[in-house]
Amino acid sequence: MQIQASYKQIMELAAPIIVGSLAQNLIGITDVIFLGRVGEVELGACGLISIYYLVLMMIGFGISRAGQILIARRAGAGRNEEVGVITWNLFYLEMFVAFLLFLFLILLSPNVLWLFIKSQEIYDASLSYLSYRSYGIFFSLFGFVLMALYTGIGRTNIIAAVTTVLMISNVFLNYSLIFGQFGLPEMGIAGAGLASTLAEIISTVFGIGYLIYDRSLSKYNLRRFHGFDMSSMRRLVELSAPMVLQYLIGLGGWFILFALIENMGKRALSVSTVLKNVYTFLSIPAWGFASAANAIVSNLIGQGKYRRVMIAVNRTAVLSFIFTILPCLLLLLFPGTILPLFSSEAGVVSGTQALIPLLIAILLACSISVIIFNGMMGTGATTLSMFVQATAVAVYLTYAYSVTKVLNLDLQYVWTSEFLYWVIQGTLAYLYLNFGRWKELEF
Q1: How far apart are CA 139 and CA 102, in angstroms?
Q2: Number of structural domains the chain divides into
Q3: pLDDT digit string (tens) for 4-53?
Q4: Is the pLDDT of residue 441 over 70?
Q5: Would you say the C-alpha torsion 90, 94, 95, 100 has a positive or negative sign?
Q6: pLDDT average, residue stretch 431-442
Q7: DSSP calls for 248-288
Q8: Domain assignment of residue 339, given as a range
Q9: What angle do CA 134, 137, 142 make, to 5 degrees?
Q10: Is 346 within a domain?
Q11: By CB count within 10 A, which of 148, 184, 231, 337 is most buried?
Q12: Angle made by CA atoms 196, 197, 203, in degrees to the nearest 5
């Protein structure tokens, strides 16, 4: 599929990703809504351990982004027969990485978490959640293979379908296993971990079924079994290595930030958990458009249409900003209606509400910055994008550490670091797209 990057085409490509991301993120929000009724310890532990799990899961996501770039580049150039080879080898690589991550989660997590978590209650609750959630890593990474394939060829409807199945399954299982409904045991936070893993198994079976019966994939040579291909694997590893480091740096910084907040006390962590989930939910459109921008830029370069790259990035950024600011206005107007959904603790709700103006500023900065940065990654400049993110995270964590450990300031000053992060990252990526030598990159 060759993309022209009109507003209509950007929307057609991004909309299913946004719907899919909405369903995916509702899983985390469901955990918070249910666990917010169990207790403040469970709520805080869920916020912290979900980021820890996400950090490791993003290793697979970084690899899938490399696969998506390669698939989009081949599809844009009309080299459809190579898509199947890349997809199969992406699957092999993801499953190998999933096995290594599973061993890490099971064997090393207790020691790693002990270094960051101060509260014994939160530490115990975190391990209880992780004891079941760890098994989902295989299905999470398989989902990334599907996302890379369908986004790369410009057919994103399946992503929305699979993640909708994931969301519905997770809501039902969360309610059943956390509170002990429908004859199932009452497991608390451990039930949330088990529910997410079972939901991923269900959605994976659905995704495999769709893959088998999707006749439109025949031209991509996917139905034929492809063995290990050294050339394709080398391209995936070379392109994904800096992207994996980039995601580890970015989300690792996010985890360290929450560890710093956990040291400020149980209430600060609970407020930040609610704020994080509202933040994640309202940034869904931006991340959907970002994924589209990545695929569009790579596809345009594959067609040799270099002049349309910045046009595509700018148009996508405009749409991202519009679709972000609208729900932000609802949050600003009706905080007393929205925030109590996440916690029944009045102190947690009031503490979160005080940070809403800052959160909106962060979201608007994110809506532009994340598009520009993903446009940069779409050019294939993955090593440079890693250094851009590393620079932004270094400034971000230095500021956050100074605020929490040196100056002992309030939570709002800690969260200001997130706004600083997006401004730095977006500015550096914009400079590269305008003045960098990305047209010369070959892979």
Answers
A1: 11
A2: 1
A3: 667 887 887 777 667 656 655 666 677 777 877 777 788 777 777 877 88
A4: no
A5: positive
A6: 74
A7: HHHHHHHHHHHHHHHTT-HHHHHHHHHHHHHHHHHTHHHHH
A8: 7-440
A9: 165
A10: yes
A11: 148
A12: 85
**DSSP states of 1-16 as a string?**
------HHHHHHHHHH
Does 428 reside within a domain?
yes
Q: How high does pLDDT run on average in the chain?
A: 84
Residue 416 CA to its chain's centroid (Å) = 21
Contact between residue 260 and residue 414 where contact means Cβ atoms under 8 Å apart: yes
Reported residue count of the chain is 443
* Confidence band of 328 (pLDDT split at 50, 70, 90): very high
pLDDT tens-digit series, residues 67-123: 887 887 787 777 777 788 888 899 999 999 999 999 999 999 999 888 878 888 888
- Residue 2 in any domain: the answer is no
Strand, helix or coil at 117? Answer: coil
In a domain, 1, yes or no: no
Q: Which of 192, 188, 173 is nearest to 39 (CA)?
A: 188
